[in-house]
Amino acid sequence: MPDVPNEQHDNVPSRQRRRFPGISSRAYEHPADRSALVALRKLSGFDTVFKALSGLLPERSLRLLFLSDSVRVSDEQFAHLNAMLRDACYILDLEKVPPMYVNQDPQPNAMCIGLDEPIIVVTTGLVELLDEEEMRAVVGHEVGHALSGHAVYRTILLFLTSLALRVAWIPLGNLAIMAIVTALREWFRKSELSADRAGLLVGQDLQASMRGLMKIAGGNHLHEMNVDAFLKQAEEYEAGGDLRDSVLKILNVMPRSHPFTTVRAAELKKWSETRDYQRLMDGHYPRRDEDKDTKVSDSFRESAAHYTDHVKNSKDPLMKLVSDLAGGAGDLGGRVRRGFGNFGANGSGNGNGGGNSGNHGTDEDA
Question: Which of 29, 134, 142, 238 is catalytic?
């Protein structure tokens, strides 16, 4: 279906979607995103670094770079993306439409950066990979970042990651920077879950959001992929293995800026089935003009409840151990040994056989 010309398209989505006037980012923010950002702000030295970098980062240079070496989305260039951007801002009621650029890069990617004002950048690899509805969810994802104020921290993360490489030869300096980079990455991974929700609010097509994530994971081969099978991978990833695998999951994800795609898909589908999502779609959601009345303690309670529920219901072996211990389960040493499959044992009386048997028993509910 061709896009309506922009003169008639400023405030009208290309198909009927629910709009969310005055919506606060609190409506779609993942509790882990909020708690990770609070933890980040409490990190020793972060305020000092943040204030210093806010004045030093060459934002003007960044804008000139994209203006000079990328294609700015407009009525004349990538008009279909411009229509999607306006739609997304209309639906989430973002008053000022951020500039968007298409950058030549075969790697599918998109980002929202900037200190004073957000800029959205999408790569040619992403534009070529996704269909209209899948791309609409991505544009909504980036507009969600803009509405949540994520662009500032994302920009600092990019700068510090680059800086860490330059000062790697200075031991203490690099350690200090990497501590903040690690905390920023942990927050940003959680912020992606929030932005995925914003993308669903804009696209209002769960299957398109799922397809987009599958394509990012497996390329443009939808005829070879299946959403249900893809989601089963997320279940297998969470529940599979023993405590060693739980540790490896943590190590694997630490260098990444984004959560794994199967995990993102599972989290988004789970949220789409909640009462909170249905109430939001029915028009019951927190408004921006109420943000000033919100209390930090409420965010803490919501985040704590989320983590408690996550640990309690998780099938991950490490989370199951934590849950059991919190519930007063005894025999800590035995549980840990069984969880690691008696790793390092030299065939004592309880031996590898007993350890492995216990280990496989742990996985029965995967």
Answer: 142
Spatial distance between the Cα atoms of 37 and 88, rounded to a whole number of angstroms: 25
pLDDT tens across 197-244, in order?
999 999 999 999 999 999 999 999 999 999 999 999 988 877 765 545
Q: What is the CA radius of gyration of the chain?
A: 22
**Mapping DSSP to helix (H, G, I), strand (E, B) and coil, where does residue 6 land?**
helix
**DSSP E strands: which ranges in the chain?**
71-72, 100-103, 110-113, 119-123
Residue type, 276: D
pLDDT at 14 (0 to 100): 53
| Cβ atoms within 10 Å, residue 100 | 26
Number of Cβ within 10 Å of residue 122's Cβ equals: 26
Q: Is the pLDDT at 68 greater than 60, yes or no?
A: yes
CA angle at 156 for the pair 213 and 214, rounded to the nearest 5°:
5
Active-site residue 95, yes or no? no
Q: Are strands 100-103 and 71-72 parallel, antiparallel or unpaired?
A: antiparallel
Q: Residue 349: its pLDDT value, please?
A: 43
Helix (H, G, I), strand (E, B) or coil at 23: strand
Give the model's confidence band at 4: pLDDT under 50 very low, under 70 low, under 90 confident, else very high: very low
Strands 119-123 and 100-103: parallel
- Tally the C-alpha atoms within 13 A of residue 303's C-alpha that lie toward its C-beta: 18
Pairing of strands 71-72, 110-113: unpaired
DSSP string, 90-158: HHTT-SSPPPEEEE--SS--EEEE-SSS-EEEEEHHHHHH--HHHHHHHHHHHHHHHHHTTHHHHHHHH
Band (pLDDT 50/70/90 cuts) for residue 160 is: confident
Q: Which residues contact 63 (CB under 8 A, 6 or more apart)?
A: 114, 119
- Residues pairing with 71 in the sheet: 102
Please classify residue 61 by burial: count the beta carbons closer than 10 Å to its beta carbon, then call 0-12 exposed, 13-18 middle and 19+ buried.
Answer: exposed
